UniProtKB/TrEMBL annotation:
<dbReference type="InterPro" id="IPR058031">
    <property type="entry name" value="AAA_lid_NorR"/>
</dbReference>
<dbReference type="GO" id="GO:0006355">
    <property type="term" value="P:regulation of DNA-templated transcription"/>
</dbReference>
<dbReference type="InterPro" id="IPR025943">
    <property type="entry name" value="Sigma_54_int_dom_ATP-bd_2"/>
</dbReference>
<keyword id="KW-0547">Nucleotide-binding</keyword>
<keyword id="KW-0067">ATP-binding</keyword>
<feature type="modified residue" description="4-aspartylphosphate">
    <location>
        <position position="59"/>
    </location>
</feature>
<dbReference type="InterPro" id="IPR002078">
    <property type="entry name" value="Sigma_54_int"/>
</dbReference>
<feature type="domain" description="Sigma-54 factor interaction">
    <location>
        <begin position="147"/>
        <end position="376"/>
    </location>
</feature>
<dbReference type="Pfam" id="PF25601">
    <property type="entry name" value="AAA_lid_14"/>
</dbReference>
<keyword id="KW-0804">Transcription</keyword>
<keyword id="KW-0805">Transcription regulation</keyword>
<dbReference type="InterPro" id="IPR001789">
    <property type="entry name" value="Sig_transdc_resp-reg_receiver"/>
</dbReference>
<keyword id="KW-0238">DNA-binding</keyword>
<dbReference type="GO" id="GO:0005524">
    <property type="term" value="F:ATP binding"/>
</dbReference>
<feature type="domain" description="Response regulatory">
    <location>
        <begin position="9"/>
        <end position="124"/>
    </location>
</feature>
<protein>
    <submittedName>
        <fullName>Two component, sigma54 specific, transcriptional regulator, Fis family</fullName>
    </submittedName>
</protein>
<keyword id="KW-0597">Phosphoprotein</keyword>
Length: 457
């Protein structure tokens, strides 16, 4: 039992004494400090103490004020304690609403006690990771070492980093150009047990095949014209650390075959050599290509793909996490000050609205360049839309989303299914889970609504 675990204080609120007592007993045995509450008023009274709890586990249905109302009041009062909701209505909009107003997660009654303890452990693990990321950002002045964003998509990425960083598993990072795949690779390395070892990076698309092979595996003296001395390759240099293979989808089949051996055996020979070199290296690869399609086309080895695809992390496009744009913009405004002694430039509401409504085909990298340019043109003062090179989009938000999905090769059937599922959810939200009214609002019978609802679980 760790000291950190002993210090965690959990408030458990449920009007059912059986459930309340069971959870207190379980978490007491896990080494946490627990305290019970029977109703919403008691929760509010205890949560406003000078020393807040580390976690609130609360039932949605309680006498007096229900759990959702209590959660809203806590957030309005600036209390940011993580909340896990318990609900017997997991398929309804109640669970969706809980997440929307600030719950960390929810569990569905009747629940398995192990499921609840796992959710709590995941929460505290994520908090530790987030703290590490913040420490890393505070220590680093290089934006390439930082990953900015608090959107749900980025929170999920942080969770995934926490799950995989401490392992030696090969990681494949996918995502469009400019989304920050190299930054993610850095974060995996610095949060791993290999953090004190080297982090070696190779852009596989920047070198022709003959040079790439020598760069990766090194060469012996006289291996080819110009090889005047033995040279260690990037894999040798990365021994006891990590190697980042960017744009791995650009490798030729011949080089792919040699890379496969390293992933399988952790050994290779230098170009022109016969001595086997063994290395202890963690491989992190990245691509903006659809490697599954490349496998089908015969341009990427299937066996290599499965070796790389042990853990896959997908970075969302910027248009899929619009809520992070203000944070990113603030970061780049601070980075690109008009003069070293100047305060950061400011962005007008109109200009920020244009940033939020743009499609960002170049992702975070394009946003960074746009902010840098706007700071120069505004001379470090207030940035308006006149200082921007972005062409305002006349497309609706739905059109922008469809365009993004088409770039990800979604089929028409998949697009229509998503629209239908979201429409069913929204109808329930707008009509407070009244199935009959929700069905009527969509022009459906209650039976047809239930049939479609079942289709999407």
């Amino acid at each position: 039992m760790t000291k950190a675990t002993e210090q965690r204080h959990i408030l458990i609120a449920d009007d059912d004494p059986g459930i309340r007592g069971l959870l207190c007993e379980v978490f007491d045995e896990e080494g946490y400090l627990t305290e019970p509450a029977e109703h919403g008023g008691e929760v509010l009274a205890k949560m406003t103490k000078k020393h807040p709890y580390d976690l609130l586990i609360m039932d949605v249905r309680m006498p007096g004020q229900d759990g959702l109302t209590i959660l809203e009041q806590l957030r309005k009062n600036g209390i940011t304690t993580p909340v896990i909701m318990m609900t017997a209505h997991g398929t309804s909009s109640t669970a969706i609403r809980a997440i929307q107003i600030g719950a960390y997660d929810y569990v569905i009654k009747p629940f398995d006690v192990e499921e609840v303890t796992l959710v709590v452990k995941r929460l505290f693990d994520h908090q530790q990771l987030a703290s590490k990321v913040r420490e890393l950002e505070a220590k680093s002045f290089d934006p390439r070492d930082k990953m900015i964003g608090n959107s749900p998509a980025m929170q999920e990425i942080y969770k995934q980093i926490g799950r995989v960083a401490h392992t030696d598993a090969t990681v494949l990072i996918t995502g469009e150009t400019g989304t920050g795949k190299e930054v993610l690779a850095n974060l995996i390395h610095v949060n791993s047990a290999r953090r004190n070892g080297p982090m070696v990076k190779v852009n596989c698309a920047a070198l022709p095949e003959s040079l790439l092979e020598s760069e990766l595996f090194g060469h012996e003296k006289g291996a080819f014209t110009g090889a005047v001395a033995q040279r260690k390759g990037r894999f040798e240099l990365a021994h006891k650390g990590s190697i980042f293979l960017d744009e791995i989808g650009e490798m030729t089949l011949a080089t792919q075959k040699k890379l496969l051996r390293i992933l399988q055996e952790r050994e290779f020979e230098r170009v022109g050599g016969t001595t086997t070199v063994r290395v202890d290296v963690r491989v992190i690869a990245a691509t903006n290509r659809d490697l599954e399609a490349d496998v089908r086309a015969g341009t990427f080895r299937e066996d290599l793909y499965y070796r790389l695809n042990v853990i896959t992390l997908h970075l969302p496009a910027l248009r899929q996490r619009i809520g992070d744009i203000p944070l990113l913009a603030e970061f780049f405004l601070d980075k690109y000050r008009y003069a070293p002694s100047s305060p950061p430039a400011r962005i007008s509401e109109e200009a920020m609205e244009r940033l939020n409504n743009y499609d960002w085909p170049g992702n975070v990298r394009q946003l960074e360049h746009e902010i840098e340019r706007a700071v120069i043109l505004s001379r470090g003062n207030v940035i308006t839309s006149e200082h921007m090179s972005l062409v305002p989009s006349s497309r609706s938000a739905l059109q922008v989303d469809i365009a993004a999905r088409l770039r990800e090769k979604s089929t028409l059937e998949e697009l229509l299914a998503d629209v239908e599922r979201l429409a069913l959810q929204e109808a329930l939200v707008q009509h407070d889970d009244d199935l009959k009214v929700a069905a009527r609002s969509l022009g459906l019978s209650e039976a047809e609504f239930q049939k479609r609802q079942k289709k999407y679980s």
